[in-house]
Amino acid sequence: MGPIGANLSANLPILNGKNWDQWRVQMKMILGYQEVTEIVEEGYSMLTKDFTDAEKTLHKENKKKDCKATFMIHQCVDEAHFEKIAGVASSQEVWKILEKCNEGAKQLK
């Protein structure tokens, strides 16, 4: 799928610590549109020592999808949330951190 269109990028939701439920729903739709939901939810396997060409190709595709998902999430969080996820290696882990931060905040209300 091609890059995000100008109309979509102008209307990206921003997670600000007060809108987790709405943001999560909107992000799941955006990640689905970008065809990266599965990578965020399930992650992907690293290459084993004796990998085949097919496994190498699949790993490269999954890594690209993971980068795309992480990029999308980075675009949709405020500065405070970005600081929490900036050095995280996978989109799956990024999502878990955001979930943990915001589910906890929701319980405090």
Structure report:
The protein is an all-alpha fold and 109 residues long. It is built from 6 helices and no strands. Helix 4 (53-75) runs parallel beside helix 6 (91-108). The protein is elongated and about 45 Å long. The N and C termini lie far apart (40 Å). The model has no long low-confidence stretch (mean pLDDT 89).
Set out the fold topology.
Layout: H1 6-9, H2 20-33, H3 37-42, H4 53-75, H5 79-85, H6 91-108
Short description:
The protein has six helices and no strands. With 109 residues, the protein is mainly α.
List keywords for this structure.
109 residues; mainly alpha; 66% helix; 0% strand
Major sheet: none
Shape: elongated
Average pLDDT taken over every residue: 89
Compute the number of strand runs. Answer: 0
Question: Order of helices and strands, N to C?
Answer: HHHHHH
What structural class do helix, strand and pairing data support? mainly alpha
Number of contiguous helices: 6
Taking the alpha carbons of the first and last residues, their distance comes to 40 Å
